[in-house]
Amino acid sequence: MNLLLAEDDAILADALLAQLQHAGFTVEHAPNGAVAEYLLLKQAWDLCILDLGLPMVDGLTVLQRVRVKKPALPVLVLTAQDDLQSRVAGLNAGADDYLTKPFDFPELEARLRALLRRSQSGGGAAAGGGAGNGQPDSVSMGALVFERGARRASIDGNPLELSPREWMLLDLLLSQREKVVTKEDVASAWSGERAEAGGNNAIEVYIHRLRRKLEGSGLSIRTVRGLGYLLEVARAPA
User: Where in the sequence is the domain holding 21, given as residue range(s)?
Assistant: First the structure.
């Protein structure tokens, strides 16, 4: 399990390196944003722990740039910024999880392993998809083609880049496309760990991001007030 630790606090970085290696991770340390961006783009990683307050290039900028090239890389943001605005900004930039300092290492390790499970499952059982759950391997809706087995999605033949959580959310909406998907359904698809997922605010952020990515597909995600979300073919203007 190759993990990049992007952290500028040398004392914390040394402690985390020792703990992560003891937990079975192969870890490389990036002391600033420029090094983190270079390593993330040039090497293959299973996970990334990314501090937002990095020198040279801040963590949010690194995350936004890396997401363009590696949309599926699981990234856990680790930061002292614990206000709602910072959490939402991190999720909007593409973070898959968010942990504030100070923290306990067992919680960090549990979150990392949860991200690994989601990434390795490819949105299978957790997202309610896949042949094992009675869902077709390939789904076409509007201009969207969603291939569960190959973990590939496209709009009019153009690849659709999705983070692990976006993939699971779209898989859930497609598998329940004639039914309303509640926020509880989404929390369950994200391993039922509502606190880890960031609660309702995080779900709303991911719905907003997925809506933008589905532009041009002929599909829309409709908010059913008080109930949840419904994926449907967008109606042509009258």
Answer: 2-121
